[in-house]
Amino acid sequence: MTPSDLRAAFLDELTTIAPDLDAESIGDDDRLRDDLGLDSIDFLNLVSALHERFGLPIPEADYPRLATPAKAVAYLAEMLAL
């Protein structure tokens, strides 16, 4: 899976959780909570959706690594390479 595929999958899950967001307008460095307005429940739902989609355990200690789309894609790429 390429970084572009991971980004598309991440944005798909994100816009499913927050349907008011437009995937085309989300920047790589937009902060999920501060810039895109996700609350803690939305964020936890996103983590759960990513876990389901990719089959990866995502420990709470790694949540900061999902703070932006770019960070999330890098994290997923790293974890899927293991």
Give a written overview of the molecule:
The protein has a single domain (about 5-80), classed as Non-ribosomal Peptide Synthetase Peptidyl Carrier Protein, Chain A (Orthogonal Bundle). It has helices at about 5-15, 40-55, 70-80. It is mostly helical and about 80 residues long. Helix 1 (about 5-15) crosses helix 2 (about 40-55) and helix 1 packs across helix 3 (about 70-80). The protein has three helices and no strands. The chain is globular, with a radius of gyration of 11 Å. The model has no long low-confidence stretch (mean pLDDT about 95). The longest helix is centred in the N-terminal third of the chain and has 15 residues, at about 5-15.
CATH superfamily: ACP-like
Q: Just name the CATH architecture.
A: Orthogonal Bundle
Major sheet description: none
Query: CATH class, please?
Result: Mainly Alpha
Distance between the amino and carboxyl termini: 13 Å
Summarize this, please?
By secondary structure, the chain is mainly alpha-helical. It is 51% helix and 0% strand.
Fold topology:
Elements: H1 3-17, H2 40-54, H3 69-80
